[in-house]
Amino acid sequence: MPGRTPTDGGDGLMATLANRIDSRLRRGNPLPTLADANEDISRPILVPSWRYAALLSVVIAGVLLGGAAWAWQIYRGIGVAGINHPVGWGLYITLFVFWVGIAHSGTLISAILYLFRSGWRTTINRAAEAMTIFAVMTAGLFPLIHLGRVWYAYWLFPYPSQRMIWPDFRSPLVLDVFAVSTYFTVSLIFWYTGLIPDLAALRDRFRGWKSKLYGTLSLGWQGTVREWVHYRRAYLYLAGISTPLVLSVHSVVSWDFALSIVPGWHSTIFAPYFVAGAIFSGVAMVITLMVGLRFAFGLEAYLTEYHFENMAKLLLLTSLIVGYAYAVEYFLAYYSADPIEQESFLWRARGAYQGPFWIMVFCNVVVPATLWFRKIRRSIPALFVISIFVNIGMFYERFVIIVTSLAHEYVPSGWGLYTPSWVEIAILIGAFCWFYMWFLIFAKLLPTISIAEVKEHLEHGKEHGHAEAHAGHPGEYE
Fold first, then answer.
1. Residue 171's CB: how many other CB atoms inside 10 A?
2. How far apart are CA 29 and CA 422, in angstroms?
3. How far, in Å, are 215, 231, 429, 445 from residue 209 at the CA level?
4. pLDDT tens-digit profile of 111-132?
5. DSSP string, 411-442
6. Measured between alpha carbons, how far is 233 from 121 in angstroms, rounded to an integer?
7. What is the structure's pLDDT at 305?
8. pLDDT digit string (tens) for 421-452?
9. What does the alpha-carbon distance between residue 379 and residue 163 come to, in Å, rounded to a whole number?
10. Which residues lie closer than 8 Å to 244 by C-beta, 6 or more apart?
């Protein structure tokens, strides 16, 4: 858009951008140019918008609500939460497992699909990687919140001290510290490495202190052949290192449950079951975020039906695995001939928590089954609704696994029910707002789509005649 400046009105620029994309598609030219990629992807960073400011204000208010509830819990004690005997793990651990699961698809999309050279990851990998970072940051809050006396949190970490108190290294709770911190560190390095060429592009677009800031963060990137060779090699190695973490981190989280003797937990299926569920919920969150980015920033030429259909296929695949795991759980309980195990699973479906159980089944098995239809897979509004249902279902899955097993163990005199308190609900709201706050800040400061990779694929498409091959499918340049 020649002649436009970063100080033009945000809403007018968004409308102009959308009109330009529409006119480009009507002319039968589905592929943006290299200059278009630079302009379109960096536009949200350059342009202020009152809608963005209003949404950021809402999520910050939610974070303050959650922070106030946590402060009240610290002041009054952990008793203000609904946690009781026998349910010692409630909403806080449910949210910890939920957010660790959300973090998984970022590495899946970025690392595993990169290793398999799946071109469609190009426009969604950056936001997925950022989602990984912010989801781990959110998950890391809940062991501290659940601890109650948070000022003793340093007791959890294995380090040499004069107290000579060491955690039990055989405990999966200690392994969680190593697994999650390693996953966060590698994911952060992987994300930052992919950002370096784009930070250099932003350095060249800005002037003054912003140019110096982005220039410092880009580590002096000049785009020489030597730099690209080393960059590609480093990115490949990091992708190879990150891939096993997808399997290891949530497997370790599943051991928090599987290594106990609680009915409904002591099962060897938990590791693959948790990994599949984590990818399932993570892909759903990616769809939710990408639909929002597409709508808010006018990125229709880059986030096309083709990309969403591929994510929908991945969502359908993991839904089938999760549904199969549900069936296997019940079969194993039946085949074990253990009356306590059988009673535990029957109580899930017919007891006091049958509502969350059937919501879980409906959202995770029935709703995603609509993705068998291509029309649904290519309908972005339908995918947005399905992704919301999936994340509701995955939250209830964690809740059902944790609460129903603890509430209905071996001895009937020890059975009890758990209901979250208003403090826990406020912290739940604050956690979601915390996650979205960081994602909104990211979307305003850094490119949500990899400029370098999009331009590479655009050039590749032109060289191989993909523009003509995909003329009937706007944006499918991979």
1. 12
2. 54
3. 10, 26, 36, 14
4. 888 888 777 777 788 888 889 8
5. -GGG-------HHHHHHHHHHHHHHHHHHHHH
6. 18
7. 85
8. 999 999 999 999 999 999 988 888 888 877 77
9. 60
10. none
Quick check: 23 and 305 in contact, CB under 8 A?
no
CA within 13 Å, CB half, 67: 8
CA–CA separation, 190 vs 128, rounded Å?
12
Q: If DSSP codes are grouped into helix, strand and coil, which group holds residue 298? A: coil
Which helix (DSSP H) or strand (DSSP E) does residue 287 occupy? helix 270-297
Residue with tokens 């959300």: 102
Look up tokens 């795991």; give the residue: 325
Burial 98-116 (b: 16+ CB within 10 A, else e): bbbbbbbbbbbbbbbbbee
List the domains of the chain with CATH numbers. Answer: 30-469 (1.20.1630.10)
Q: For 58-62, which contacts have Cβ atoms below 8 Å and span 24 or more sequence positions?
A: 58/433, 59/433, 59/434, 59/436, 59/437, 59/440, 60/433, 60/437, 61/433, 62/429, 62/430, 62/432, 62/433, 62/434, 62/437
Spatial neighbors of 110 by CB under 8 A, at least 6 apart, are 121, 125, 128, 129, 190, 191, 194, 239, 242
Taking the C-alpha atoms of residue 283 and residue 387, their distance in angstroms, rounded to an integer, is 8
**DSSP H/E element including 323:** helix 305-336
Beta carbons within 10 angstroms of residue 226's beta carbon? 8
